[in-house]
Design brief:
six-stranded antiparallel beta sheet; Glutamine Phosphoribosylpyrophosphate, subunit 1, domain 1; 494 residues; Rossmann fold; single chain; 17 helices
């Protein structure tokens, strides 16, 4: 819990159309261990509109936080002398509130709370929702950006065509913004592409290679260009971000679609320990990330992001490759151990996320898609007799471990590859075991119900809205029903 016992004020103004996102973030803050005190402006307490009634929102805030919301200027004023808040968030913050704040006006409980917090020289975070942010209010935003102790949740145009003056914060970045503000820093970038605000994400692409003997005579510039090309052919898997890592013959590339920690979850992700570099690229999701992270924190580990990738890397550094046995999720991973000069290629237990590889001399090459391998010089799409048998004898299925093309293979489900100067080793870390079923019918039904519910709920870990695919069958209807019930409790969008 990155905000455990932090006293956070959440001041809400009249942008009712963004209240759904605001309450989602209140729920996230509570999950991160924060102690919340809500404050409502006069308008937000009483107005009635198509998005709901003010008094209903006030009650909802009380029920979620367990604390009575502040509803008057007198109540908000005590924030100053008591110093009761570590940080104050204006969410949503309308253009009207920003204009008044920029000009020293304190005629609402929210504005008084902001004044009291700034008097204590403590951080105020603005989560903007304004239809005139690029109009008459732009000068006020500029003034606030340059004011000491005031920070902004990254914002951009939500609809440049229909509402060219409108700006809205990406509330998914609220917690990272808070963490930086508590350190006296503005989270960057503060201005974001409007497309980022509405994006939906599902997968990434990984690629790279290792020559542990460094005998292929390629320059660093040539290696960079090859890796760049491997990333480019998998660009459709991850248009949000791109990263490259080079060290001692190891080259890692990543293209990203963002699900968790949208801006700080950049990959390849690196950590140093005792002068050694550890790097990771991951395609997939770790569903038990929260539990694993809490355990690592108890053991003294520190985190700089909220991404599941950092959890895997930190766990490996502490426990070694056996840590992958703790992972519950769907993933393909490449992990570089700079101390041992060793590369690991890891695939999830049932092989949901793809991971292909080949060798050219002493170089091991890998990618999420086979065409990523073809971007490496000398790797050609050659179909041999075995490949033809796969296509015409088994297609569209294929044998485990086969890549159809000559000398192209895939990491087996529940396996990992280990590659260094000693050669390539294939190891299994999990296998499905058959056991005699001895439970009663009643226990079987109950256990099955729990397994299905738990599996669906674990996969709802996300910083973006959740969607389900509906085929009309029982299975998709069941998944959707479980998601909807869980989402309503967490007040997440589905």
């Amino acid at each position: 819990m990155v905000l455990k016992n932090k006293r956070i004020g959440v001041a809400m103004t009249g942008s009712f159309c963004t209240y759904t996102k605001a309450f989602e973030q209140i729920d996230c803050l509570l999950e991160e261990g924060a102690i919340l005190q809500t404050i409502f402006s006069d308008i937000s307490q009483h107005i009635k509109c198509r998005f709901g009634k003010g008094e209903e929102f006030v009650k909802r805030a009380h029920d979620m936080t367990g604390n009575e919301p502040m509803k008057t200027i007198e109540e908000a004023e005590i924030i100053g002398p008591t110093g009761c808040l570590d940080i104050l968030i204006l969410m949503p913050c309308t253009g009207n509130t920003m204009a008044k704040l920029a000009n020293g006006i304190t005629d609402t409980p929210v504005l008084m709370a902001a004044k009291a917090q700034l008097r204590n020289e403590k951080p105020v975070v603005i989560s903007m929702a304004s239809n005139d942010a690029l109009g008459m209010n732009l000068k006020n935003i500029g003034n606030l950006l340059n004011h000491k102790h005031i920070y902004f949740v990254p914002f951009g145009q939500d609809d440049p065509v229909k509402k060219p003056n409108s700006m809205i914060a990406d509330t998914r970045l609220l917690i990272p913004t808070i963490l930086q503000a508590l350190k006296g820093r503005q989270y960057q970038p503060v201005l974001i592409d409007h497309k980022k605000i509405k994006e939906v994400a599902c997968m990434c692409g990984i690629a790279g290679f290792l020559n542990p003997r460094n005998n292929d005579k390629k320059t660093e510039k040539e290696i960079y260009q090859i890796l760049k090309k491997m990333n480019e052919v998998q660009r459709h898997r991850g248009p949000d971000d791109e990263g490259i890592f080079l060290e001692n013959g190891c080259a890692l590339g990543h293209v990203r679609l963002s699900i968790l920690d949208l801006y700080r979850g950049h990959q390849p992700m690196c950590k140093k320990k005792e002068g050694n570099t550890y790097a990771i690229i991951l395609n997939g999701e770790i569903y038990n990330m929260k539990t694993l992270k809490e355990q690592l924190i108890k053991e003294g580990e520190m985190f700089s992001t909220t991404s599941d990738t950092e959890v895997v890397l930190t766990g490996y550094i502490r426990y070694g490759i056996s840590y992958i046995e703790e992972l519950n999720g769907i993933f393909s991973i490449a992990l570089w151990d700079g101390k041992r000069k060793k590369l690991y290629l890891i695939r999830d237990r049932v092989g949901v996320k793809p991971l292909f590889y080949t060798k050219r001399g002493d170089t091991l090459i890998f990618a999420s898609e086979i065409k990523g391998l073809f971007a490496y010089p000398g790797v050609k799409p050659v179909i041999n007799r075995e490949g033809l048998c796969e296509i015409f004898g088994l297609g569209p299925a294929k044998s485990y471990g086969k890549g159809v093309f000559k000398d192209i293979y895939e990491v087996l489900p529940g396996h990992f590859l280990e590659y260094d100067r000693e050669g390539l080793k294939d190891r299994a870390y999990w296998e499905l075991k058959a056991k005699e079923h001895t439970d009663s019918e009643k226990d079987t039904i109950e256990h099955t119900r729990w397994l299905v519910k738990d599996a669906v709920e674990m996969q709802m870990l996300s910083d973006i809205p959740i969607s389900t695919f509906l085929s009309g069958g029982v299975d998709s209807s069941l998944v959707t029903a479980i998601c909807a019930k869980k989402a309503s409790k967490r007040r997440k969008k589905i």
